[in-house]
Model the fold of this input.
Amino acid sequence: MRKVVLWLAISGQVMMTSAANRFENQHPVPPGVREADKQMNAPVEAPPPVKRKLMDPARLRGEAEELAKLSAGIPSQIEQLNHGQVSKDLGEQLKHIEKLAKQLRSEIMP
Done:
């Protein structure tokens, strides 16, 4: 009888030790991993449709005409610059041309 009790005690100790070792060797799961797994397995939703602004043809035409008018005067001012005459509003005109071009581009190609 003593051998049976001793054998049960030893086998119980071995089982408890092996179970404890098994839990010690496992690494804890970082907090965000489980949430990331849930999100990866979630169904994918289609992105919302992009709302395009309605273009005003009259305003676009007006901006394009103003851009053309400002651009037409640049070559003569550059020619004057080559002859030593500096136009005081050349820099401002170039900035305005750039601004108009950016506006038109953003409206046509959003």
User: Anything to note?
Assistant: Residues 12 and 93 are 92 Å apart (CA to CA).
